[in-house]
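User: I'm preparing a small set of examples for a lab meeting where we compare how different chains pack in three dimensions. I only have the primary sequence for this one, and I'd like the structure in token form so I can line it up with the others. Please keep the answer compact; I'll paste it straight into my notes.
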Amino acid sequence: MEETGYTVISVRFAALCEEICMHEGFRKMFPDYAHKMYHIFICKLANKDKKVPVETDEMQIACEWIDINSLKNIRILPEFLGKSIYEVINKTAPIFLGSEHIDFNHG
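Assistant: Understood. Below is the structure token output for the 107-residue chain.
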């Protein structure tokens, strides 16, 4: 419901990864966003009814459902998730994608 407006059913916990922004100015201005833990779940739609999203990200432009086969052509952030997206989807056990220190928050 937060970003998409859809109600989903969690199928399984798929991955965990961490992102730490090293930019001191960003860390001071946005301390809640300087260190992120991504808990990634495989989900399915509970139904096709869409509501107004309850919590969009400040820089979010839109949200759309895409065909799973087109993921290889889309930039997914954080980058280490994008590089491992098919592994995350296809593994049956959760995986740790690692920690990434970035110079500046990607948004």
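A couple of notes for your slides: The chain has two helices and three strands. The mean pLDDT is 88.

User: Perfect, thanks.
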